[in-house]
Amino acid sequence: MTLQQLKYAITVAETGTITEAANKLYISQPSLTNAIHELEKEMNIIIFNRTNKGISISKEGEDFLGYARQVLEQAAILEDKYKGDNGGKKKFCVSTQHYSFAVNAFVDLIKKFGQDEYDFSLRETQTYEIIEDVARMRSEIGILFLNDFNEKVITKILKSYDLEFHQLFVARPHVFISRKHPLAQNQVITNEELEQYPYLSFEQGEHNSFYFSEEIFSATERKKNIRVRDRATLFNLLIGLNGYTVCSGVIDKKLNGKDIIAAPLADESDMRIGYITHKKGRISRLGTTYLEALNKYFN
């Protein structure tokens, strides 16, 4: 097994086709196919399933590629330290719920380590996808929250994937509303006061259970519900419809807009916001720097 073979396998997984991967790697398709076959034979696994419609990653292939990404990351760190160059293109990926502080920390990371070449990914995505990304080591770090309602379910899933939760800070739930909202002057807002207004939340796909919600689940029934996929749509509807959402209260005017304010929400359990990592993984220098940047926004 060589680092080159690992790079080949990861490129095939990222592109989805042998043809595109071969073009990206500047080698012939037969050479790439043979290299992948030799790797699978040596490691005694099937990384890619082959069909008439193309290739797909096998279940054991997902696990293997997760470890392969870590090996290549560590190799890049060694080159960076001992070869006196940049160790090639820096790579880093974090998956997160829709938090402005996660974006700001990502910006800080790029400013510090971007250099001339880098390949960084910030995935603002659904809760279950965050867990899967870290479980398969596509992302080094995943950011989400636990509270009294979802902790038992989420913790069980994390354990089944061999993942760990690390608390960053405890937040009191806040309501995000327009500065012109009828409740904007309230020092504290109750669920009863919010009953007549549309509740905005992020859609969670196949795992649209309350336990995977990015927002606090309340025992109070919400009569008007709107689910969206991205931050911009949520805030546009929040302003246009006098809607509201529930989040940590950490707000950034540059990202969320000056027309959005946060007010404490009464009678809801605290949000324990943190990050998840794989127990078998190791936090890289980029990951450590990102976590340091995150902490800057809470302290």
Automatic annotation (TrEMBL):
A Pfam family that the UniProt record links to this protein: HTH_1
Domain HTH lysR-type: 1-58
SUPFAM superfamilies: Periplasmic binding protein-like II, Winged helix' DNA-binding domain
Record bears the keyword Transcription: yes
GO molecular function ontology, one term from the record: DNA-binding transcription factor activity
InterPro entries recorded: LysR_HTH_N (IPR000847), LysR_subst-bd (IPR005119), WH-like_DNA-bd_sf (IPR036388), WH_DNA-bd_sf (IPR036390)
Keywords attached to this entry: DNA-binding, Transcription, Transcription regulation
Cellular component GO terms held in the UniProt record: protein-DNA complex
The UniProt record lists the keyword Cytoplasm: no
Domain of life assignment: Bacteria
Family indicated by similarity: Belongs to the LysR transcriptional regulatory family.
Protein name (database record): LysR family transcriptional regulator
Source organism of this protein record: Eubacterium ventriosum
